[in-house]
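Review session, final week

We close the course with one last complete record, chosen because it touches almost every idea we covered. It is Rha family transcriptional regulator, a protein from Leuconostoc aquikimchii with 206 residues. Go through it on your own first, then we will talk.
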Amino acid sequence: MELVYYKGLQDEPYTTVDVICDFTDVTRHAVMVLINRYKKDLSDLGVLSFEMTKPSQGSNGGRPKKIYHLNEQQATFLITLLDNTLKVKEFKKLLVKSFYQIKSELDERKIHRQVNKVMNIGFGDVIKAHYPDSKHAYSNFHRLAYKYALGVTPKQIKDQRHTEDPQSALTSDESARLERAKQQISLFIQDGYDYEDIKTKLFADI
């Protein structure tokens, strides 16, 4: 079982309540009581995010379970509230090492991403490498790049400017914006984000 997780390069590494319980032998109820009691303190150390998990298939049912995602500071603070048993002390060391290893791995991936950026890996090549079996991946991401960079789709460019080749109808400034959007999408794809995640991230600050 991994101690620390991450989703994408821009997201903070985190551990979970389940990890803490499994490695310290502290009950889930006891950990949740501490989280609820010190929720404000934990929130001061970052967004206290969580996910809801459904009961496993084949089980006797039950209610969905709330799994908190704790960043390094939140997890460290929470552990200080536990009794300092031998298992808790050992877990502290393991967790510190795990966060360090994950952050080192993320740094390496960021460096690799920058190298790819310098090499200017083609937009289509990136999509093809990550979605080899999808017939619509390129058109979906291509359309997304236009929408994000220019506020219109390629079809709308065709209709508005009476052309069959929307790329040729763009100004130099529009072309530059479109290329930056494609590059940004390419980097997100290489980071492991899917289409909906990328769309959300692109339009979050607009």
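Two points worth writing down before the exam:
Residues 15-109 form one domain.
The chain has ten helices and three strands.
Good luck, everyone.
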